[in-house]
UniProtKB/TrEMBL annotation, chain A:
Span list, region Disordered: 330-352
Gene3D superfamilies named in the record: putative rabgap domain of human tbc1 domain family member 14 like domains (1.10.8.270), Ypt/Rab-GAP domain of gyp1p, domain 1 (1.10.10.750), Ypt/Rab-GAP domain of gyp1p, domain 3 (1.10.472.80)
Presence of keyword Lyase: no
All copies of domain Rab-GAP TBC, residue ranges: 400-589
PROSITE patterns for this protein: TBC_RABGAP
A GO molecular-function annotation: GTPase activator activity
Biased composition (Polar residues): 334-345
Protein name per Swiss-Prot or TrEMBL: Rab-GAP TBC domain-containing protein
Automatic annotation (TrEMBL), chain B:
Name of this protein: Ras-related protein Rab-39B
MF term (GO), any: GTPase activity
Source species, domain of life: Eukaryota
PANTHER family attached to this UniProt entry: DRAB11-RELATED (PTHR47979)
Record key words, sorted: GTP-binding, Lipoprotein, Nucleotide-binding
Organism: Adineta ricciae
NAD in keyword set: no
Family: Belongs to the small GTPase superfamily. Rab family.
Pfam family, one: Ras
SMART domains registered for this protein in UniProt: RAB, RAN, RAS, RHO
NCBIfam families registered for this protein in UniProt: small_GTP
Amino acid sequence: IIFCARGPSNSPLACCWAFTTSRRSTSINQNLNGKTQQEILYQCQIFRCENQDAIYRILLSFSNAFRRTTNNPPSNARRTTSLISHAIQATVSQLQQQTSLNGSQSSATQQQMFDGAIKFRCFFDIKEENIDSKGNLTFNSVSRPEKNVFNLRKNHRKSVNVILQQIRGTPMNIDRCFGLLLAQGRNVRASDMQLLDLETMGKADDNRSYVVKGYWNPLSRAFKDLIHLNEETPKGARVFLTVGLDIVINGISEPVRFLIEAKARIIETGRSSDTASQDIGDTIWSSFKKVTQFTEEFDMIVKQVSPTSSHPDQIYEVVSLESKTEAERRSKLQRLSSTTRTNKTTGDDDESDEMIISGFGHVSKECDADVLNNWNEILMKWRKNYSERPSGLQNLVRKGVPEALRGEVWQLLAGSVTNEKEMIDTYRLLLTKESSSDRIIINDLNRTFPAHEYFKEQGGIGQESLYKLSRAYSVRDDEVGYCQGVSFVIATILIHMPEEQAFMLLCKLMEDERYLLREMYKANFENLQMKFYQLNCLIEEHLPDIYAHFYDLKVECHMFASQWFLTLFTAKFPLYLVFRIMDIFLYEVF
Amino acid sequence: MDNMYSYDYQFRLIVVGDSTVGKSSLLRSFCDGVFSQDPDPTVGVDFNVRIVEVKPGVKVKLQLWDTAGQERFRSITRAYYRNSVGVLLIYDTTNYVSFTHVTSWLNEARAQIQPYHSVFLLVGTKIDRESERQVTTEEGKAFADFHNISFIETSSKSSLYVQEAFTMIAREIYDMLTEGRIHVQSGWDGVKTGPKSANSNQSQPIEIAQNVQPRRNGCCSS
């Protein structure tokens, strides 16, 4: 094959494609124009096919056939391959057009342009070893109570099957599987992944997908650390598992790792009769129920690069690879933290088992011009007279202080800007003194807002400020000292202003008679008990259903609310909410 | 009736020990099967529940009180000892100081729990960090033997012996209950009968699994 092309889309030739098998390649004028094709008809095979999908498959097999011929002079082979690739790419873009209704873009331009977006679909299944009534060993797919949850039996040997299929973009040829890995949990580190023994790998018969099978024996020593995956899962709970697939793709120098995330429930086998009957129930039902396959999709972006001396075969470089699950989680997190939709609760509780890390969530810095104007007016008045809160302020605060103004507004609300010089001197002096709570303060640094950029780095600038501030206050206030919980309040303030100003605001919060937080942190915690009582009354008054339910279950406020109060609601909520609560607290107090 | 929420007994346990020894992580690992590297410090108290089977057919609901390790919260946590039938004394096997403090935690618990009887379990944590170990298994064992309490070492990160630790203390309490050394008493929340058994024997102190031992009449004497 020295020539391969297809008719441009939006033309009568859209369903045609052609190639030539002539060996007298030098004399033939290569032209992608359909008209020329007809002129050189005697050398060319032209096909017409309404089904773009079929064209795609046929071209793909050509492409693969060419890659396999090694005795061709490499330069020729590569050129041919790229010709076929162009044809395939054109097909794919037509396929995309067929599927997308608003595909207004001409695919003729796409044909010339390389866009690096590639999509893979992946089918994932776990099979378990069974011995049937005749004593034969078979591997059967395990049951799945939910689409993404696998029922696994303890100590049973398993086979992990992954099928990878490209469904969009410039065709990539999968050369081989470099490794199949398994880990418990998700968001796992590479070092936590355990290599599975590869059973088989290779292209499926239809040549469109790549199949990898690995062998997982939970009892072998290599897997002894994956305890959650071979120990009975508590009732109602699920454990996460991650499967990694390292794939070598032609033209990409490094293996590409695809991470598939699933959940599992581990069942103790044959222990009690009801589990067994449940198993039978599952099996019976699964044959009737149409079991949808576990699928995952990956969006990969590649860019074209020139080969280097160390990687002469390199054509592409992977810019990004993200699974649909990751993408959804990311957008969910963004949605959760977008300031505009505070009232909307997410409908599915799929992620309810997610552990909340303090300091999470994005806070938008954007603000309406109108709102900003209103604030500007108010701030002008306010800056002239600190002691008096301008009228109309309450309304604005309740709607949320714009993030860009929070630092100043919080200080104004608390009135912490007075005696600035004196307070800064005090702060510097306090820093020179020793604190008896030093050890516990240091212990809390890593545990305060670890999800926030500013505080997550151990020994970083955020943690250092947090340490200094916590320490300075503990020295200043002998009676309260350092009380766990206060670090979250300090971190919330520190996000918005420099250390010295933060110290002044903290002192106001703790000592000013309007806020008097220090009362809550005092050794006997009587003030906290009072807050529990108040909360209980408020629940009774405003949420009678919950009150009744809690009463039935004997759930009392002290069982869940101490962290809420002692951190001023800063530890368990996304930051946009944390800051809103702080806005209101500073204005209206408890 | 016999659904997943029914249980025969409820035991209330309290988890104590120095700050950052891994009390909350142990509970998260046991109750939710998850592990997080740097969980929030517990301020005041926190609360977890899980049902375990102490022997086939006998379900016990464990009410687990997680406490703050910081010294200053003792005034809050102290109030929770009285209504607990079991105490998990936690230390960090990679932090010797936390081990030396176990004595004071034990003494405080004993003083607060009187006059009620309770069961203690000494738990060493973080054994996945073997290279950083500062307290040997023998030291832990010797301490437990000296005070005549049970002992186990765990790793919440790799979920090692976490399950076993809680089953161990639950079984021990259950055994004492069947032997009549601990009993259900009104005004004390350490042990309660579950809704399941409460239906069958309303006001009797305890009905112990019928096939094991004859019921002791002496169990109501104290």
